[in-house]
Write a structure and sequence with these properties.
By secondary structure, this protein is mainly α. The chain has one helix and no strands. It has one helix at 3-26. The protein is rod-shaped. The relative contact order is 0.13.
């Protein structure tokens, strides 16, 4: 696994976390 895989993986996780945070803020 190269650094690009790790970076894209972190980006996906952080994006999902930010979406969850926005959904929680709306409720």
């Amino acid at each position: 696994m190269g650094p690009l895989v790790a970076v894209s993986g972190i980006a996906v996780v952080s994006q999902a976390a930010s979406i969850e945070h926005q959904a929680a803020s709306r409720v």
